[in-house]
Specification:
8-stranded parallel barrel, two-stranded antiparallel sheet
């Protein structure tokens, strides 16, 4: 390492999944069942993460009720509104929100996230998703889900248009010259005049370029189309991998594809999802996992697993292994990421359905790490040092308690090993992630 080279630093986000990743987390004695719709719950989690110097909080989203609400809380609050509230209660932590390219318009999303970047002082990120569930389609007047290739073609054009809108003002377009009476230099504000397969957008955006240039682009998708979208546009990727070799191949392949598209080797941060269940001993951690799983009705877990795999629940028998013939859900038009991750775990360990549900902690495809703070720090360090991850999107078993356990137990070990910051070096999400501020590239030099 040269004297001027900055050591690689681990990145940590917390995915605030209402009461926690495990579906039964809301039933714990210390949990508030109404937390899923309480802004103060999210603010509290964000403040814990900020005190530990995390890169960002991450909010998932759905455009419909896609879980079994007779038992589990749902993603209810709209992410950008909620993140604006979190921004007002914090000073440094990044703010990543999910918005679908299938059920929004580019101008609205460009404006919404640029506004969040302005009001937060440069801490916003947009998680690009295409949305594959039928209930969401029906909420927007469709009887079927658009096919996989169409969703990703639309997402590619959608994201390109949003970036053009974010770049439609040059950095110095706003003047504000009281003496000369010049408010905006209109020669530096440009329409984008986009005419594409899915969208017609004139532009420009109706607010100046935001503090980061534009918000950080995040993407979550494991299909071939998803990886191509990420390679073209993403600056951070929320991935799902159950094993080290699988994660390493994914990270290397994605970064190589990005480089082949003319982006730098450090253009993307790969952040696999990771659920942590922590105990003072391995036995205590496993006991906590089992106690949480035992609070979940088996019919709930079976129905959720069947949905992930795209099969009728009757095909799953608790004490048998998964069926051999499992094609991609909905003829390939379902969620590839969680299907592949779940199937990989079941096949590699030869698990029965009951064992699989327990290993997943009742969840939906992300890796679950059960152990002591030292064991979890060792695992994180191994994946990080060997290139399988640039960091992790953490999904603690329960919130806020599971995050506090990670902050108190794991973070100090990572800091002692020189892997994770002890103070923020900057104020924007791009600075936290070590990403360059994008150079504005107006698409039309004619004056607005």
């Amino acid at each position: 390492m040269s004297d001027t080279q900055v050591p690689r630093q681990l990145h940590l986000n917390v995915n605030i999944l209402h009461s926690g990743f495990v579906p039964s987390a809301w039933r714990l004695a210390e949990s508030d069942p109404y937390a899923f719709a309480d802004v103060q719950h999210y603010v509290k989690v964000a403040r814990i993460a900020e005190a530990a110097k995390f890169d960002a909080v991450f909010l998932a989203d759905n455009a419909a009720i896609v879980d079994q609400i007779h038992f589990r809380p749902i993603t209810a609050l709209e992410p950008t509104v909620l993140l604006a509230s979190i921004a007002a209660a914090t000073t440094h932590i990044g703010l990543i929100g999910t918005a679908s390219t299938s059920y929004n318009e580019p101008f609205n999303i460009a404006r919404r996230f640029a506004t969040l970047d302005h009001v937060s002082g440069g801490r916003a990120g947009w998680n690009v998703v295409t949305t594959a569930d039928l209930p969401s389609a029906r909420n927007f007047g469709r009887d079927t889900v658009p096919d996989h290739a169409e969703r990703y073609a639309r997402a590619d054009e959608f994201t390109s248009v949003v970036k053009d809108l974010w770049n439609s003002w040059e950095d110095d377009a706003f003047v504000g010259d009281k003496t000369g009476g010049s408010f905006v230099d209109v020669r530096k504000v440009h329409p984008i005049a986009h005419r594409g397969e899915f969208f017609r957008v004139q532009g420009p955006l109706n607010l100046p370029r935001s503090p980061q240039g534009y918000p950080v682009l995040v993407q979550a998708g494991g299909s071939a189309d998803g990886r191509e979208l990420a390679a073209r546009h993403a600056e951070a990727v929320f991935s799902a991998s159950q094993g080290f070799e699988e994660a390493l191949a994914y990270a290397r392949g994605l970064k190589a594809r990005a480089q082949a598209l003319g982006r730098g080797p450090e253009a993307i941060r790969v952040l696999p999802g990771l659920t942590t269940i922590i105990g003072a001993t391995q036995a205590q951690a496993r006991a906590r996992r089992d106690a949480l799983v035992d609070l979940i009705p088996w019919d709930y877990s079976l129905t959720r697993l069947a949905g992930t795999l795209g099969v009728p629940v009757e095909r799953l028998q608790l004490d048998a292994r998964l069926p051999d013939d499992l094609p991609l859900p909905n003829n390939g038009n379902g969620n590839h990421t969680f299907f592949n991750a779940t199937l990989a775990l079941a096949r590699s360990q030869q698990l029965t359905v009951r064992e699989l549900i327990r290993e997943l902690a009742g969840g939906g495809g992300h890796r679950v790490l059960v152990g002591t703070p030292e064991q979890i720090a060792d695992d994180i360090e191994h994946w990080f040092r060997h290139g399988a991850a640039d960091g992790f999107n953490l999904m603690p078993d329960a919130l806020p308690g599971g995050l506090q356990d990670f902050v108190d137990g794991v973070v100090p070990i990572l800091q002692q090993r020189g892997l994770f910051r002890t103070e923020y070096a900057g104020h924007t999400l791009r600075e936290h992630l070590g990403l360059a501020r994008p150079v504005g590239r107006p698409t039309n030099r004619a004056a607005a």
